[in-house]
Amino acid sequence: MSDGPLHLPVQAELVTAADTAEFGSRLADVLVAGDLVILDGPLGAGKTAMTKGIAAGLGVLGRVTSPTFVIAREHRPGARPHGLPPVALVHVDAYRLGMTGQSALDELDALDLDTDLTDAVVVVEWGEGLVEKLTDGHISVRLTRDPDSDVRRVTVSRVNTTSAPADVG
Cα–Cα distance between 138 and 97 in angstroms, integer? Predict the structure, then answer.
């Protein structure tokens, strides 16, 4: 895996959990307050490891764990690497919200994520098909895991929900 900046869209093979976290840290270099990152993949694909890497790359304060039972955790901004401006992280696990229906939308609305989007990077695990409506665009991170080798594959793209997906260089 290259150490240079990421240019979206990008695909990579991640052999270890550390590779997944390192990729997340590199992804953080292109994130700014207002970005919505949707992590998609099956159980065990590396969504939380990716989020831990994003958090490290953003330099946020506090330990990052899966917010499965509290739904969302906010991490205050700290000193961000590479002299980038500090930004908070809101980490959401939408798994318990359910993936469809009015009750899931009501629970999502109660989290006030649209308010957080102006001041933070919002990372949502299990949010595909549910949180896209919060912004005109988002960053899609799709993770898969090879069951035989445990190698993860990631595809990251910037998606404009008002038209076709857009490439960013």
Answer: 20
Q: Please calculate the CA angle 140-143-148 and round it to the nearest 5 degrees.
A: 170
Return the structure tokens found at 120: 């933070």
Q: How many other CB atoms are there within 10 angstroms of residue 72's CB atom?
A: 16
* Alpha carbon 39 to its chain's center: 5
- In tens, the pLDDT along 110-148 reads 655 555 567 889 998 877 777 777 778 899 999 999 988
Q: 42 and 144 in contact (C-beta within 8 Å)?
A: yes
- Contact present, 135 and 129 (Cβ < 8 Å): no
d(CA 73, CA 76) in angstroms, rounded, equals: 10
Query: What is the pairing mode between strands 10-14 and 152-160?
Result: antiparallel
Does residue 142 sit in helix, strand or coil?
Answer: strand
Instruction: Return the closest-CA partner of residue 107 out of 120, 94, 119.
Output: 94
pTM equals 0.82
